[in-house]
């Protein structure tokens, strides 16, 4: 078990739905001068693949630089999330990817999202079976319950929406942990115990990781800054492997309580994406889910999002193991 703090720092990222009902506090539209600078940058990189772009290619002043610095401050020291509207999503997926990666490079460094080393992934239904352990749920239309990803910052941009469903829902993990500490002090220390995690990708055998759901990233005069890492189906699937440690009844109850609180309307915020929207989340502080969706029939109309995982070493509540993304080191 990692250290169990008596006092949790209550930052701006510890919020309830009632604290974030004003959309203007977390949603903004890309201004014309910032969009113009973005287009100039994209034109300057030509046909360079998005994965080959780097921060060294970017200007360090201008309207876009000021806008992305503002978003980064909201992630680092604010509510932990921001939605930006107005990215041009009418062109090709490759053109949208270049715009998206430029924005991401102002926030952090892209890291791998799978063991194949992909830095930019496509979030869409591939027809994969969501019941298979090797299936990543973002490649299906199935609901993804509340969870976190890897890295420090998670970015999504919307190219096309579904016919119905596919809404984004987010919740403050630190507020949920504080609520468990307040109402179930018997379960609160359980969150800091080691849990078994099942991980598998297509073509590879499964392996088991062990780590807590909640860990102390930093101690401050205001209390502990927490990092939450929570993928409940990975934890539950570990029990299918005979060599995985068994979950205790208290651990199972703790998982269920996180899910119940996150799905309580008092604790979460719903967002409906539009084409050209970009959502940035601070992974240590925000749980997110995606509702199931019904897609369009024509391939050219089907729901399509792009995703980035970004490393931000200055985020004090980040985690050294997680912020580097998914690498071979996780299997050892």
Describe the fold and architecture.
- There is one protein chain.
- The protein has one domain: Clavaminate synthase-like (Double-stranded beta-helix, 4-Layer Sandwich), CATH 3.60.130.
- Helices cover 22% and strands 24% of the residues.
- The chain has helices spanning 32-45, 63-77, 93-105, 173-183, 232-237, 249-262; strands spanning 27-29, 81-85, 109-110, 120-123, 144-147, 153-160, 164-165, 168-172, 195-199, 207-211, 214-220, 223-228, 268-271, 278-282, 286-290, 293-294, 304-311.
- A hairpin with a 7-residue loop joins strand 9 (195-199) and strand 10.
- Helix 1 (32-45) packs across helix 2 and helix 1 crosses helix 3.
- The chain is globular.
- The model has no long low-confidence stretch (mean pLDDT 93).
Describe what is shown at a glance:
With 332 residues, this protein is of the alpha+beta class.
What are the main properties of this structure?
single chain, Double-stranded beta-helix, globular, alpha+beta, 332 residues, 17 strands, 4-stranded antiparallel β-sheet, 7-stranded mixed β-sheet
| Structural class designation | alpha+beta
Domain count = 1
How would you name the CATH homologous superfamily?
Clavaminate synthase-like
Shape, per Cα inertia axes: globular
Distance between the termini: 20 Å
Q: What is the CATH C-level name?
A: Alpha Beta
| Low-confidence region ranges | none
Q: Outline the biggest β-sheet.
A: 7 strands, mixed
Mean pLDDT: 93
User: How many separate helices?
Assistant: 6
CATH topology (level 3) name:
Double-stranded beta-helix
Order of helices and strands: EHHEHEEEEEEHEEEEHHEEEEE
Radius of gyration: 19 Å
User: How many runs of DSSP E, i.e. beta strands?
Assistant: 17
Considering DSSP H and I runs of 4 or more, what fraction of the residues is helical?
Answer: 10-25%
Strand % is: 15-25%
CATH architecture: 4-Layer Sandwich
